[in-house]
DNA sequence: ACCTATACGGAACACGGTTCCGGTTTCAAG
DNA sequence: CTTGAAACCGGAACCGTGTTCCGTATAGGT
């Protein structure tokens, strides 16, 4: 029974070609996202990976699933940086500022990601859920530490803050705009005077 | 030769039916924008106005032209409120806060307008140009007055600020978000401490 | 009443996402 | 090695949008 794997419920393992295609797709998507943003046409991604469009939908039912798969590592890294920064920074407020900087860095280097983040399209629900579930608690922890230290206003909602910062990063590559400056203003506005 | 008006350049006046259609379109578009946002399908707007899609494109080559035509009055009113607020408010900072509140009010009540504002699509160039040409100088004047009074940081770029505030208003109707709170944070961040 | 510049309507086209199904491939059992 | 079927693949077909184009209708001057 506890043999090579064909237990009671599992009918069969994932086929090798399936796994190959999935990885080819991830690589192709990552490349396409860099050149055309996260809105890269499905057909383009499929062509790059050398598969049919059907294969994309089979592995990643919605675009959000694909985006999450591509950026999972980076989101994970960002989430883990939160507690670390809190431990090594001079003050909780400094840690908060550094962490948000990290988050902004992540967003502005992915064309169209910030836009996708705020879409209320049902297909992007997955993206919302993943990003927020993973990052909001970290942000909340930082906010709480800073509030307890009396550095910032109390009761700031982490979800609202992250949502807003995401919005501010939209169109960050425009020469006539400066997302970091605006985010800086928000951080400053958080401070108790 | 110098008869009823057919001068040297103008071949003929705009036909009456053309003008009627243009007004029907404006009305239909305004209604459609309320129910479906500024992204309302072209065919829907045409159907509401009882005209063909060709007629829309003839009168308003790009969607931005239509949007501008529909909201011109309100933008005008907002622009004119700037100097008025500056004159009647207790301090320049108060005037700035009130004016931005007005602007935010305008944006959040038009589904999708904030999104459209930040689109870098060439078709929305007209919208950018009009809104910014009209409102940025007003904002700049308010910022300048407040800076001169020593209430806020100097050299804040009005264009960047408006761009950022526009971004913050995206998705303002989501129950889990609060655009006004975020804008308030920005205004607070502007203050000298 | 006639004539033509002007304007109209909607069919046709372009494009991107999404679905679906006939053919192919993998894998394990014999 | 052979074989059978479940798993998987590819891309044609479909749908909803924006956009263009041209034959037809009409306003308004003469």
From TrEMBL, chains A, B:
Query: Which InterPro entries does UniProt cross-reference here?
Result: Homeodomain-like_sf, HTH-type_TetR-like_transc_reg, HTH_TetR, Tet_transcr_reg_TetR-rel_C_sf, TetR_SbtR-like_C
Region: Disordered; residue ranges are 1-21
One Pfam family named in its UniProt record = TetR_C_43
Transmembrane stretches in the record are none
Q: Whereabouts does the entry annotate DNA binding, in residue ranges? A: 41-60
Q: Which UniProt key words apply to this protein?
A: DNA-binding, Transcription, Transcription regulation
Q: Report whether Disulfide bond shows up as a keyword of the record.
A: no
Q: Which PROSITE patterns match?
A: HTH_TETR_2
What Gene3D superfamilies does its record include? Tetracycline Repressor, domain 2
Keyword rRNA processing carried by entry? no
Start and end residues of each HTH tetR-type domain: 19-78
This one is known as TetR/AcrR family transcriptional regulator
- Organism annotation: Sphaerisporangium flaviroseum
